[in-house]
Amino acid sequence: MLGVAHLLISGTLNLSSMDYFVRRLVTQMLPVMFLASFLVFMVVRFIPGDPALIAAGGENRMSPEAYEIARERLGLTEPFHTQYFKWLGGIFRGDFGTSMIKGVPAADIIFGAFPASIELTVFALAYGWTWGLALGILAAVYRGRFWDYFAALWTGFNIGVPSFIAGLLFLLIFAVTLNWFPASGRVPFLSDPLDSLRHVALPAIALGSIVSANLSRYTRQSILDTLTEDYIRTARSKGLRERTVLLRHALKPSLIPAVTVMGLELGGVLSGTLVIEQVFTWPGLGRALVSSVRERDYVVMQSITLLLVAIFLTANLITDLVYVALDPRIRLGTKADA
Q1: Residue 13 and residue 7 in contact, taking contact as beta carbons nearer than 8 Å
Q2: Quick one: 287 and 334 in the same domain?
Q3: What is the extent of the structural domain holding 334?
Q4: N or C: which end of the chain has fewer CB within 10 A?
Q5: CA separation (Å) from 244 to 80, 231, 232, 254?
Q6: 59 and 154 share a domain?
Q7: Residue 327 domain-assigned?
Q8: Which of 247, 318, 298, 313 is nearest to 51 (CA)?
Q9: How many other CB atoms are there within 10 angstroms of residue 121's CB atom?
Q10: Own/partner long-range contacts of 138-142 (Cβ < 8 Å, ≥24 apart)
Q11: Does residue 180 fall inside a structural domain?
Q12: Other CB atoms closer than 10 Å to residue 137's CB: what's the count?
């Protein structure tokens, strides 16, 4: 978001850039969203289980007439393409449909869980990006010394241990044994910021640690590669201090590969919430999605999945903006054609 603000302030976001965004929207984002919506709509119907039976309380011995009435009420008697285009048309109108099981608007379920997932994602990414960049910079500056070895150990542990295993370890150590943090639940940030941070700390660290591990590795290598460039040697030959060379000349271009990792890690965080929210009983989209899968609630299931796809595609577009903010030599138009 800082990169987007920089673009707006500096005026880099000009008419040609807007042409790029329109082209990207028409040629990439919309076709991918359409394809994803079709695949999601089709795949969820291969999941074993009948929503009509579940909505009726699992009454396997219900009469054929009652069963057909339940299927008709849920819209399952219509042809596949009719069901799909009805749902897709509702999405364009802002109507996500009605939950097959709970009988309430799917939007109420989705946007009731959305703030919790956004809160967890923001804190996890803030922790992962901040700690990952700091650790990668320290590892590069102090190559072959303590911080370099610590970064290697940190990276190896977090890449090798799945986030849900790390989450269980955090629960056992910091919640159960030491009783420093709550073991489950969520407190909205605006209602009680301090208590909210205590509840979100463990799931955010468990989710963001893999982000910090990947980012620190790429940041370290990128800085080391940049420090071998000719303009860095020229800056050193002028008598500039090593700290000045690093901060003024090497750091900014070194962050460009890191931005790619930062953008891609959003997808990992979104998928990780599906498991972490179960471990920490976090009432977000992950728990709502798992619940909809368990109940065979097609409408809620496909709507949440499509929303996650839209968030991921939007994050990729923002990543392109940050590219331009970090390196003005990169032009959106040429990058799009590359």
Answers
A1: yes
A2: no
A3: 1-101+295-338
A4: C
A5: 63, 13, 11, 15
A6: no
A7: yes
A8: 298
A9: 21
A10: 139/216, 139/219, 139/220, 140/219, 140/220, 140/221, 140/223, 140/224, 140/227, 141/223, 141/246
A11: yes
A12: 23
Residue 138 and residue 81 in one domain: no
109 domain-assigned? no
Residue whose pair of structure tokens reads 């990128």 in the numeric block: 222
**pLDDT tens digits for 30-68?**
888 889 889 988 888 887 777 777 766 555 566 677 777
- The CA radius of gyration of the chain, in Å to the nearest whole number, is 24
Number of domains in the chain: 2
What global pTM score does this model have?
A: 0.77
Among residues 129, 149, 154, 130, the alpha carbon closest in space to that of 139 is found at: 149
Could you tell me if 81 and 70 lie in one domain?
Answer: yes
Q: Are residues 300 and 286 in the same domain?
A: no
Residue 249: its pLDDT value, please? 72
186, two tokens: 């969520």
Q: Answer yes or no: do 144 and 191 share one domain.
A: yes
